[in-house]
Design goal:
mainly alpha
Length: about 55
C-alpha cells in the first residue's frame, strides 16, 4: 500500500473515532456510551499503528 493511501486511511480512521466519541457523548444509555467509547479507542489505536492493522 502506498504511503499516501496509508496516511489517508489513518486519517479516515481517526475521523471515524472522533464521530464515535461525539456520539458517545450524546447518548444517555451508559452501556451504549461505553461501547462507542471502546470502539473509538480501538480505532484511534489502530490508526496510530504503522501497518494500520488491528491488534
Amino acid at each position: 500500500m502506498s504511503v499516501a493511501r496509508e496516511v489517508n486511511r489513518a486519517q479516515q480512521m481517526r475521523e471515524k473515532a472522533r464521530h464515535l466519541t461525539e456520539a458517545a457523548e450524546r447518548t444517555r444509555d451508559p452501556e451504549q456510551r461505553r461501547r462507542l467509547q471502546e470502539k473509538a479507542r480501538r480505532l484511534q489505536e489502530q490508526s496510530e499503528r504503522p501497518d494500520g492493522l488491528p491488534v
